Amino acid sequence: MKRYHKSPLQIGITGGIGSGKSIVCKVFACLGISVYDADTRSKWLTNHDPEIRNKVINLLGTRAYNTLGEYDRAYVASVVFQDENILKQLNAIIHPVVMQDTDRWVAERNDEAYIIKEAAIMKAAGDGNSLDYVIVVQAPVELRVQRILQRDKRSEAEIRSIIERQVSDESRNAIADFVILNDENAALLPQILALHQEFLTRSSHF
After folding, report:
1. Which sign does the torsion angle of CA 170, 175, 179, 181 carry?
2. Which residues contact 88 (CB under 8 A, 6 or more apart)?
3. Cα–Cα dist 205/11, whole Å
4. Do residue 172 and residue 201 come from a single domain?
5. Same-domain pairing of 100 and 45
6. Of 198, 199, 179, residue with least CA distance to 24
7. Domain range holding 79?
8. Is the same domain home to 74 and 5?
9. Are 20 and 117 in the same domain?
10. What are phi and psi of 113, to 5 degrees?
């Protein structure tokens, strides 16, 4: 459902770990669509943005960055996931900078028909954001587990724990304007091409 329009049309893509949302985004990129990967960009900013670095060190101490000056995700995770208040403070440091970075990125693409923002955590379009539509990439849990086992050096128990801590499929479906099924039965490319044409058409109406 259309909420309100920003130029260009802004499409969110989300999905659980192993759902294949990154593959979907790569296909859109091959179609010439600009994709903002919020998770990857957040990691880069946490390592390189001096404002984030200084505030994180003030919050968590110098151990938050290793001897090479790189953000120590394992150490930070061990601290913040034991204290929800510290996690909220950390998010309050990083998220505003990422939002500013996103806004600059979008502003540089005013001449494009639509752009895509990829993130693991997302709200419905128009719910405190500039998204026009949200795509949810779905795949059965067992298939997602097998994909991650092949991709990452994680145990099955660890993978299932991550999935359980993430947003549920039901919650994602509640914010979905469109769903892409990536279950290795439904053909993926036709679904993406259909949405690509849909967004080009909707963008041309403004």
Report:
1. negative
2. none
3. 16
4. yes
5. yes
6. 179
7. 40-108
8. no
9. yes
10. -65, -50
